[in-house]
Amino acid sequence: MNPLRLAALILSIASGLSGYAQVSVTTFHNDNSRSGQNTSETILTPANVNVNTFGKLFSQTVDAYVYAQPLYVPNVSIPGKGTHNVVYVATEHDSVYAFDADDNTGSNASPLWQASFINPSKGITTVSSGDVGCTDLVPEIGVTGTPVIDTTTGTLYVVAKTKERGKFFQRLHALDITTGAEKFGGPATIQAKVKGTGDGSMNGFVHFDPLRNGQRPGLLLQNGSVYISWASHCDNGPYHGWVISYDAQTLKQNGAWNATPNGGLGGFWASGAGIAADAGFNLYVATGNGTFDKNTGGSDFGDSIIKLLPPTANRFRPSDYFTPYNQQTLNIEDADLGSGGVLLLPDQTGPHKHLLVQAGKEGTIYLIDRDHMGHFNPNNNDQIVQSLDTAVGGMWAMPAWWNNNLYFGGSDDFVKTFTFNPPTGMLSTAPASESAVFIGFPGPTPSVSANGSNNGILWVLQTDDYGSGSATLRAFDAMNLANELYNSTQNPSRDDAGGAVKFTLPTIANGKVYVPAVQEVSVYGLLSTKAKSVGK
Questions:
Q1: What is the DSSP string of 224-281?
Q2: In sequence order, which ranges of 143-249 are alpha helices (DSSP H)?
Q3: Segment (H or E) for 328
Q4: Each residue of 391-408: pLDDT tens digit?
Q5: Which of the residues 39, 41, 52, 292 has the least number of beta carbons within 10 Å of its own beta carbon?
Q6: Which pTM does this prediction carry?
Q7: Half-sphere exposure for 503 (CA within 13 Å, toward CB)
Q8: How far is CA 118 from CA 126, 214, 261, 380, in A?
Q9: Which sign, positive or negative, has the C-alpha torsion 33, 35, 36, 37?
Q10: CA of 420: how far to CAs of 29, 181, 341, 426, in Å?
Q11: pLDDT digits 0-9 by tens, 268-294
């Protein structure tokens, strides 16, 4: 055959197969830039996501609250049970479940596997709200941060908190995604210390406290390491913000960093958002209220966005940072900069090649050049690319990115779109569109499904009834948020999303939407697929 014709045939076959490719969602908000976008969604469109053709297909029961984002891997071979598209769900009862992602009938009514990190008969339990003196997570604390999956090795990494005969532990587990079995000689008990004189220091060192430190942010996997970050429970001190990393193959600790080693607080809250990372393996994190003295030669980073180089010799080194001019006020008023997660924009061709965006409790949007973050200016924030003061409601969430649009779900606010102009490298100063629906505390973290730059849908999980009512799944036209396509209250008897859990978000993959809730995860999709068993 003519080589050119052969090449064309191969390309044609590859193009045809690409239409059947299934996306994986293996980390918080879809990728390490934390964009929240799935641009390979070919099934769900603005035309078919409506109450008549789209709704709840089924739900699966789990043993506790689900704070972690569900993760999704297609075509997983489960020993003795065949090949399945799998959704992975972690709970506050220290469990991880693997469910068939498309079907709950027959043998799929039960989990494909379940792993538990407790053993009450041996005195190993979850940690109670009373143990930490905080009712932020009730009634128990087990797994809060979203796990991360390495599909190349078939490994799920997750941090579990336990109480064992009166002592407290946090451990990094590496689970086989096909069986739930521990891998790499795990789990690894999390311990760390850094030089410092801050709260809780002993003999010149600050030690990681497995009771005080709360592991809420999603885990990060990159360049062969797993990265984990912490704040506390209810701001109960003494505590510090920690970033600790482990070799993904050996589970040996290879890095530890403390945000306030000579002070206190400075936690990594992020409302569940994972550490962001760029192609150069740099990490980007934002701290909450705490000691700040970096501008005067210190090493404390309260209310700051920090760029961390990859660890060497078991240590991280901050290479750049930004701190708002009103940091002292933010600290005093508990108006955390780091209540929201950091999002990295795609590389740009305009005046600023590498940008990040972030917003905290004040609702000010910060657009920052990642190569020149600006440090601290006591007079204003003019050293950064752009700041839009109180542009959105306070952020206990993070934005999403798609098609040169940034989407924000502020607390006590409407969901809003701000457009990004590539030639100028700036955001619109006013929303380009906003939802008609007003959402209370804590506000949602939006996610986008689209087929490339077409058929964009913005998904949010409204959880302001947490503790007393159901969550509401909402879908908006991503090009005009005033157009709400669907919400789960339109047919509540069919589509109820389960008890609301704050800081949660849905996962959208291959024509379905996975919604975490109190003791359940619900699966939404096109109603015509309800009786079908997909991907078997």
A1: TEEEEEEEESTT-SS-B-EEEEEETTT--EEEEEES-TTS-B----GGGPPPEE-TT-
A2: none
A3: helix 327-332
A4: 999 999 999 999 999 999
A5: 52
A6: 0.95
A7: 24
A8: 7, 18, 32, 50
A9: negative
A10: 20, 45, 19, 6
A11: 999 999 999 999 999 999 999 999 999
